[in-house]
Amino acid sequence: MQLSLRVERRPAPLWFRPLAPVIAVLVTFAITAVLVIAARANPFQAYYYFLIYPLTGKVSASEVLVSATPLLFTGAAATFAFSAGYWNIGGEGQLMAGAMAGAGVGLLVGGLSPWLAIPIMILAGFAGGVLWALIPALLRVRLAVDEIVTTLLMNTVFSFFVSYILNGVWRSPTSGWPQSPEIAASAHFPPLFAGYRPHLGLALALVVLAAIWVVLNRTPLGLRMRSIGLGMEAARFAGVRVERTLLIAALISGGIAGLGGVSEVAGLQFHLVETLSNNFGYTGIIVAMLGALNPIGAAIAALFLGLIGIGAQSVSQSLGVPVYLGDVVEATMLLVTLATLVLQNYRIRRA
Amino acid sequence: MYAVELKGITKRFGPVLANNNVDFSLKKGEIHALLGENGAGKTTLMRILYGLYSADEGQIFVAGQEAHIESPRDAIQAGIGMVTQHFTLVPTLTVAENLVLGYPTGFNLQPRQIEKQVADAAGRFGIEVRPSALVRHLSVGERQRVEILKSLFRNARVLILDEPTAVLVPQEVDVLFETLNRLRSDGMSIVFISHKLNEVMAICDRITVLRAGSLVGTVARAETSPHGLASMMVGHETFGVSREGQQAQGKILLEVEDLSALDKKGLPALKNISLRVHSGEILGIAGVSGNGQTELGQALSGMLRPAGGRIRVGEHDLTGASPDRYTAARVGRIPEDRHGGLIGELSVAENLALESLDPFTHSGMLDRKAILGNARRLIAEYQIKASPTDRTRTLSGGNMQKVLFARALSRNPQVIIASQPTRGLDVGATDYIRTKLLEQRDHGAGVLLISEDLDEVLALSDRIAVMYEGEVVGILPAEQATRSELGLLMSGAKRGTAASGSLPGKEAASHAA
Amino acid sequence: MLIFLVGLLAATLRVATPLIYGTMGELFCERAGILNLGIEGTMFFGSFVGFAVAYATGSLWLGLLAAIAAGVLAGLLMGLLTVSLGVNQHVSGLGLTLLLTGLSLFAFRLVFGTNRVQPSIPPFPQIAVFGSLPVLGPIFNQYLLTYAAIGLVPVVWWLIYRTSFGLKIRSAGENPEATDAAGVSVFRVRYLALGIGGGLMAAGGAFLSLAQLGSFIFGIINGRGWVCIALIIFANWIPLRVLLGALLFGGVQALQLRLQASGAKVPYELFLALPYLVTIAALALAGRNASAPAALLKPYRRE
Asked: Which residues contact A233 (CB under 8 A, 6 or more apart)?
């Protein structure tokens, strides 16, 4: 087996750059069309239901926003940390930690007005995410323990913890399955449009994305973070306090993921449930990579993945193509995009 | 028929022409020097022969046959071996394992068996190694022997040595030369890459000189002299910048006392270094590569935490301080590796501002106009060929170095730590950088110049300290520093003895003298 | 008490089996310098493909072979991304896990529909080696794949430490430049290691569907791949220690299952979280993680 491919550094022409995402999407759909055909459906029809149909009705279009909301948070969290070269894979656990903290506060704030209850709960969720991000972050900056594996493992640890709590002290006595009691009505996120499900969380997510754009591009912290992400030792040489900056980046990233958890609890579920996160933390990594670590790109990517999530349901209902097509499309798009990003700067040559 | 012949080799790295239509031929049973300044393209040419780079143009002939060498594997099959400056040994493996790696020995490997095989080969070539030792436990000289044996073990008939003496102490150089003489008499053809004239004259049969990527010529040793070779190496351009006159010594700006530090592997790299740099002087640090200069530069930049001792700059105690505190104490630092000081993916303006962002920050936000303005000003002042928004990695080495100088000097430093400031630069950029260093000295700054280029140290320094095995073995005033005197100190021969008014590690003595 | 212990030991071996395959697979990848976070997905894919092929052909062995082949392909895909293209290893690994998980679920739905009845096959039987042995008999009443997993340990040790192939893997993971300079193709070695690793991971997944369960359920892997990621660190990348670690973790799980089954009130989630916590603690104690292959996570590219 002689694999004689060789990658050489040779930037693609400038006109190629804006085309790269388009090419990635087209290649992805070409690959996944095989699955659609395997499901005995017409790919063009399927992609109509996938990408266009959800946007033709107000309800389904609003559902796209609902399903994009947690991804906006986790995408922002990943974008922020990755910009500093801190590979926080722990968005999943941090989101659940934020959800738990938010739900805990949400249970207690029944007596307060929403104007007070909601901000307190949001802060609690942020704090929950920060706390769960703290251990791997400290291990990284104090003991130089690589964060990739620790943040990944912390996700599973937290899911066991949630399961423990929900099967024990927090289990709602009135429910048939493990979930917490419902949070106070005053802590529910208000809907953004009466009669539809998109909620305050969506607005909060967009504010967060705008804020991290400003931080990354317009503040000393952001420049220091990017300098670490692009060249850690050179940044250290130039006087950037690498450890402190990474700690800040890691904790804020965790907090943002935690906000995603609050948003799901207070905007959608109103209980803490084990299945609160549908891989939102991991999908956030896809969002960040598809968005090329740019907050605006991440917003577009999250909305697009939200569309894919709803689109997969509509393809499933109308054509009988299994709903998991959505997951496959997301993952394929990630891998294809990673490959195209490399091919932008390198050419593959037979060696 | 030549053992190896290269014809018309051209290699570009982006805009840089590393080899320009170079011809080179190696006879059977000769030691052939490839001579040139740093950056002349010697290593590139040989990396092409060994398949580590692929040439953009040109042909390779091995024993008269055209050879297509696209990987080291091809080179090895053609009987070519190379010992690079950075040893390509796997530290966690034994000597024997390193030797049989990639060598067809069969699938099953029994440690005893391969160790015996290696011991036999070592005996046959007269190279002393311990086959069962882990490479990470070996000294540099031992590792080099393993590298050479590795090539011989694979039946190399052509051996390329890239600056083999740069990392050796004189005794080890003698052993190396003995080995090479023996191999030559066995009919081996050897390419000896060097920029050291005396070594080339001592051991080589023929000499090919490269300058700025182009072939200058090939001469037989008998028909040339060190002087002739030197003029071939540098051409008509010689570095014109040098120190003029003796400054009156000012107050002490940088004071290093009993500094010690460990290197990345946890071995002592600096041992009780004591130095003082005064206002208005350049203190040059000379030494053979790898005697602690790198670590000294790092320790005095806040990049390596000292294990003991003190570092003071003016009123500031900077022992163990982080780089930002060095900047705050007005220490301008030039790193040994340019890429270790600049972030290639950030713009020139961002890199210029990164060292101190406070002046560019208003109510928590970066003032982009001020950052760009600062960059425009420095680009004009330091004649940097770039625009403020260019990504720094697109700059040439000389321009990158100017960016680093601009950043360090724009903050009006009282002390400058410059490590290998002109390494790999062309003549123009080198002159420019040296002028800047002298300018700073004349304005009263204290400059610590760490350089492996002895000519540079001699041309610029008011005083010269010599490092050997992590120690300062002598400090000489410039007037007393002759090449031969420095050479003795650099080789460790005069270690521990008083040398022309200086005691090892004790600056006070030279001060008094 | 003795019966409890015997049962526990027997269960320990069963629980440890997929962990041994998975971690040995990861060992090949990481020793060659690639962190393969595609392991969770590769195990899932293996258990699905194994089940589907066994279901369709009626042959468990064909199912196992198909699973291994699928795992090899998954490893090669990881190679395409991380070795040829030099993409971030962790992001590609996670992407691979998401892809293979989605693909398995998609295909499962496509093939088996949404039947209420879980499709199943008669699984591999347990083989009693010393069936007649009194009391201790159950310990030696295991699946063939479990015996094979134990037999795998010395084989991997031999491959890694006593063959030229293992030497190439170790060098590619420690110093790819040196490996390349020695005339060994780092690409090829890494592809091979990823292929072998993927095959082993998939075999671990297939053990669950073809031997332990005889069916394919969505939660079949349930984080076992991540346990392997933890185990490889815990085991310091040493094959024999992988076996010990897998047995240790397997024992804790088996104990937890027994206690739960006996109706004892134990926080079983704590037991489940234990391997992860122990690994994080081990990482913290080991500090700079000195024994990890030096080139792990670094793509190799020749100029």
From this structure: B303, B340
Interface probe for C, chosen from A1, A2, A3, A88 (most Cβ of C below 10 Å), is: A3
Indicate yes or no: CB of A237 within 8 angstroms of CB of B340: yes
At residue A347, the pLDDT reads 57
B391 with B431, same domain: the answer is no
* Range of lowest pLDDT (A318-327, B39-48, C87-96): B39-48
Preferred mutation among B343, B347, B371 to probe A, highest tally of A CBs within 10 A? B343
Q: Please give the share of chain C, as a percent, with pLDDT higher than 90.
A: 66
Contact B256, B270 (CB under 8 A): no
The answer to whether residue C298 is domain-embedded is no
Name residues 169-228 of chain C within 8 A of B (Cβ): 170-171, 174-175, 177-185
Q: What is the CATH number of the domain that holds C224?
A: 1.10.3470
User: What count of Cα atoms within 13 Å lies in the side-chain half-sphere of residue B131?
Assistant: 20
End-to-end distance of chain B based on CA atoms, in angstroms? Answer: 61
Q: Are B324 and A234 inside 8 Å of each other by CB?
A: no
Kindly state whether B225 is in contact with chain A, defined as any CB-CB distance less than 8 angstroms: no
Query: Which residue segment(s) compose the domain that B354 sits in?
Result: 342-411
Contact yes or no for B84 and C294 at CB 8 A: no
Query: Measured in whole angstroms, how far is the alpha carbon of residue B266 from the centre of its chain?
Result: 21
| A270-300 confidence digits (pLDDT tens) | 999 999 999 999 999 999 999 999 999 999 9
* Domain span at C30: 11-112+141-286
Do the beta carbons of residue B305 and residue B311 sit within 8 Å? no
The answer to whether residue B108 sits within a structural domain is yes
pLDDT digit string (tens) for B440-467? 999 999 999 999 888 889 899 999 999 9
- Do B208 and B286 reside in the same domain of the chain? no
Comparing C-alpha atoms, which of A263, A131, A277 is closest to residue A207?
A263
Query: Hey, are the CB atoms on C287 and A144 less than 8 Å from each other?
Result: yes
DSSP B339: G
Cβ-contact B481, B314 below 8 angstroms: no
Do C182 and B72 make contact, defined as CB atoms within 8 angstroms? yes
Task: Look at residue A7 in the predicted model and tell me its pLDDT.
Answer: 54
ipTM: 0.91
* Locus of tokens 């182009």: B214
Residue A84 in contact with residue A228, Cβ under 8 Å?
Answer: yes
C-alpha span between C196 and C202 (Å, rounded): 10
Percent helix, percent strand, percent coil in chain B, to nearest 5: 35, 25, 35
pTM of the model: 0.88
The total of structural domains in chain B comes to 3
Q: Does residue C100 register a pLDDT over 90?
A: yes
The listed range with the strongest mean pLDDT (A105-119, B246-260, C61-75) is: C61-75
C-alpha distances in angstroms, A213 versus A223, A245, A262, B72, B364? Answer: 11, 17, 22, 47, 14
Residue pointed to by tokens 């927090």: A170
Q: Is the CB of C179 less than 8 angstroms away from the CB of B90?
A: yes
Judged by a CB distance cut-off of 8 A, whether residue C265 touches chain A is: no
| φ/ψ bin of B331: left (φ > 0), alpha (ψ from -120 to 50), beta (otherwise) | beta
Q: Is residue B335 part of a domain?
A: no
| C-alpha span between C8 and C251 (Å, rounded) | 7
